[in-house]
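Before the break, one more example. Copy the sequence into your notebook; we will annotate it together after we see the structure.
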Amino acid sequence: MKATTKYDIGDLVWSLRDNHAVRLDVTRVIVSIEGDGLCEVSYSLNYGDEEIPESKLFKTREELLNTL
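Here is what the structure looks like once it is written out:
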């Protein structure tokens, strides 16, 4: 199975933190593949321990704001 990711290490992405749009650096990519082939991708940002799902990150501030 081949897993594809939307972002790579070093990419800058937009996310919400404390109700503010912030630009963060992708520092780790986590790929989980379950037995039934379900693939989940999450990311660590700015060397943090929190794993954020791919669906909560955006390439541009405008993309993020359009989801609100």
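The first helix runs from residue 61 to 66. The mean pLDDT is 93. Try to locate both features in your own notes.
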